[in-house]
Design goal:
Radius of gyration: 20 Å
Number of helices: 15
Shape: globular
Order of helices and strands: HHHHHHHHHHHHHHH
Number of strands: 0
Length: 399
């Protein structure tokens, strides 16, 4: 038996008793980070007015965070390789608090963008370590359930951030929303401080470890599947509003309700994925993108009513809710001895896919209109599901 497999047997959990409160503290961290990341999307107009810049420039607050998160996901595990993971996670929550407070009191766009770099470091670093830390908090058999709880913070953050930001920005000004996000971060920090056990690093990670992991049998193909799935989704999601407005004539209020339904279904899908992964790890990886692709094609090709569109959008949300959980579970199962480095690759893959999905969707929109976007992205999701079914392995990958 290889050293990799021997190491993996010792890694899944620090003890046999699941630390569920610590798992919930990680879910709170996810919620806080996602809320902070998405806040500018709902506050662009007042932020731009308050800082005296265009909305396009203010929108770079999101771009900067995503770009930094991409590199942080790859670099942070190696740069913090000798530090207790509990300490590192507490540092991420501290960075989140500092970023939100400093953004709230920023006097210029430059200062604001610099402060968003802190959030990007916390965001990318946290995502790279989430699966690896979960492996040490619960026994191996309970890992899918733990990941579904942690990633439920994504769905809640996605649903809450935009309306919360708009509501608070309208009542008290855009800066108040970031102060509220800092308060959420403070509660998270205290809860994590009280619940996270000591998590000394098992095996030092170095920067070259990322490449070494990528070269293991089956890992590159899995990362390709991850990129394709997220590219297809973000091509769809970036253009969901113009698609629904142009095909159904739905009002702004009706559109908001449809997207709320997407978010609620997304939350349910996150929890459902934990149950499915315990029983069908490969089947879940295949089923979720296949459902998203089928829903996208049905929205274009079938003569559905507004009710039918609402149900298909909800199905899409339900299916996508399980995708981040499924890929984090794949990382933990496939590379148990270097889950942080593999998690960093997933972070980079997803952030790259966001950019490629938006850019590719825009190019397709110019060439063939909004229907072309949904047909191309739907087909891409189905092809990704086929690739995963035929070529992606869920067993541990050895050196």
């Amino acid at each position: 038996m290889s050293q990799t497999v021997c190491d993996s047997a010792a890694h899944p959990a620090e003890n046999a008793t699941p630390a569920w409160m610590a798992v919930f503290s990680l879910a709170m961290g996810v919620f806080g980070l996602l809320t902070a990341e998405y806040l500018p999307a709902s506050l662009l107009t007042p932020m731009a007015q308050g800082l005296g810049v265009s909305e396009a420039l203010a929108g770079q607050a999101v771009t900067v965070t995503a770009g930094v998160a991409l590199f942080a996901g790859l670099l942070v595990p190696g740069l913090t390789r000798s530090i207790d993971r509990r300490t590192v996670l507490l540092m991420f929550s501290t960075l989140m608090i500092a970023s939100n407070l400093l953004v709230a009191f920023s006097s210029s766009l430059l200062v604001l963008l610099l402060m968003r770099i802190l959030l990007g470091i916390a965001l990318g670093g946290f995502w790279s370590m989430a699966a690896a830390v979960a492996m040490r908090l619960v026994p191996s058999a309970l890992l899918p359930r733990a990941l579904s709880i942690i990633f439920s913070g994504v769905a809640v953050g996605t649903v809450v951030a935009v309306p919360l930001g708009s509501y608070m920005g309208g009542l008290f000004g855009w800066r108040s929303a970031f102060i509220a996000a800092a308060a959420v971060g403070a509660v998270t920090l205290v809860f994590q401080f009280m619940t996270l056990p000591a998590l000394p690093p098992h095996k030092p990670s170095r920067l070259r470890t990322v490449l070494e992991v990528l070269l293991r049998p089956g890992i590159a193909m899995g990362m390709l599947g991850c990129v394709l799935v997220h590219t297809g989704h973000f091509a769809l999601f970036t253009y969901v509003r113009p698609f629904l407005e142009s095909t159904s004539g739905v009002s702004a209020q009706g559109l908001a309700l449809m997207l709320l339904g997407f978010g609620i279904a997304n939350f349910a899908g996150t929890l459902l994925a934990g149950w499915l992964l315990e029983r069908l790890p490969r089947g879940t990886l295949v089923l979720m993108p296949a459902l998203v692709g089928a829903a996208a094609l049905a929205l274009v090709l079938l003569p559905v009513t507004l009710t039918g569109q609402t149900l298909l959008v909800a199905l899409w949300g339900l299916a996508f809710g399980g995708i981040p959980v499924a890929w984090s579970n794949w990382v933990a199962r496939s590379v148990p001895d270097q889950a942080e480095s593999a998690g960093g690759m997933v972070v980079a893959s997803v952030q790259s896919a966001i950019a490629m999905g938006a850019a590719g969707g825009g190019a397709m929109f110019s060439l063939s209109g909004i229907h072309g976007v949904f047909i191309a992205a739907g087909v891409l999701m189905l092809l990704a599901a086929l690739l995963i079914a035929r070529r992606v392995n869920v067993a541990p990958s050895v050196n």
